[in-house]
Amino acid sequence: MDYKASDEIQDLQYFGEFGGVNPSISDSSTYTFLSAKTMFDTFEGNTEGCYLYSRHSSPSNLYLGEALAQLEGTESANVYASGMGAISAVILQLCNAGDHIVCSRTIYGGTYALLKNFLKKFNITTSFVDITDLDKVKEAINPNTKMIYCEAVSNPLLEVADIPQLSILSKSHDLPLVVDNTFSPLSISATKLGADIVVHSLTKFINGTSDCVAGAVCASSEFCLSLKDVNDGAGMLLGSTLDSLRAASILKNMRTLHIRIKKHSENAQYLADQFQKDGLTVVYPGLEGHSGHETMTKQYNPEFGYGGLLTLDVGSLDMANALMELMQREKLGYLAVSLGFYKTLFSAPGTSTSSEIPMEEQEELGLSQGLIRFSIGLDNDIDKTYHAMKSCMQRLGIVETSNSLV
């Protein structure tokens, strides 16, 4: 693709008040005015470059939002105190009581719980469908549908959404296509592929240091401004405000995102290839046998690879727990949720990040209790890591020394 988001991010320059290479942090919750009229105009959203109160906006949040808009190629971006803060703001801005959403069947557990359970309070319903089956997506649309929602690469089964085709379908019904691109920043340029609104959990790859929680909405200037409207903006009124100190920290970490994503993907591809040779049940979009490999290949940015997430199914929850505990003892990573850290993180999603999904639905989706989700780290010697992981599997009888499954 011609669009080079990594270059756009690098080309952004901000200078601190005293010539610093990083922009100064706005450490204020409220801001002063020289005239009462300017305060009124700012409150009404009619003044550029002025700040009133940090729940509305702050310079630090604005800087981060500009970088995120460059990342996704959108006109604007708003930042929030969590990924769920961003997601809930988008949904409640677009939907009213009685409305309907078409959503991917495999999705982050928190998003699933919001759509399936919490929004019932407002009579907002959701149809969960196989997002890779366009006919099923089309069949689920009804007169009350207000959006199509999916993850570019789904959590935790790593299904790949065909964003260009979903965009064509959504536009034919005059619906916004909302894409959560948390698993694949830089690898997939969702807006360029046809997404109308892109959401991120900045907590993950974009920040990359597992030291904060944050989210973002990347969209048109009109939509981003509507979220901040003092009278009916969901982002404004729900109060999910990102702290300026955290915004400044995330902005600095974004400068290395292109380097980190390349290494995450390179390491994940290597491990997936080796695990597949060992006969393990491994799922990774970079493997030719993956159901979404062709779709991913036609829409990804090759220099950033197929992403840093893979899954292994070791047959049972007991075996999954034993393997994760052993790998942690061997200092191969951490038994922890989340992703995008410099060390490998692993968890059993059926009993953690997807536990909000009822067991019977997990079984229908093919979410095995023995499934382990790996967020592959930035290991310098990934072959050494592979052999250490394989040794753990051999000790537990998951693989034999002869490389065949037990």
TrEMBL record:
The keyword Transferase applies. Its cofactor is pyridoxal 5'-phosphate. SUPFAM superfamilies: PLP-dependent transferases. One of its GO terms (molecular function) is transaminase activity. InterPro entries: Cys/Met-Metab_PyrdxlP-dep_enz, PyrdxlP-dep_Trfase, PyrdxlP-dep_Trfase_major, PyrdxlP-dep_Trfase_small. Keywords: Aminotransferase, Pyridoxal phosphate, Transferase. Belongs to the trans-sulfuration enzymes family. This is Aminotransferase class I/II-fold pyridoxal phosphate-dependent enzyme. It comes from Flagellimonas spongiicola.
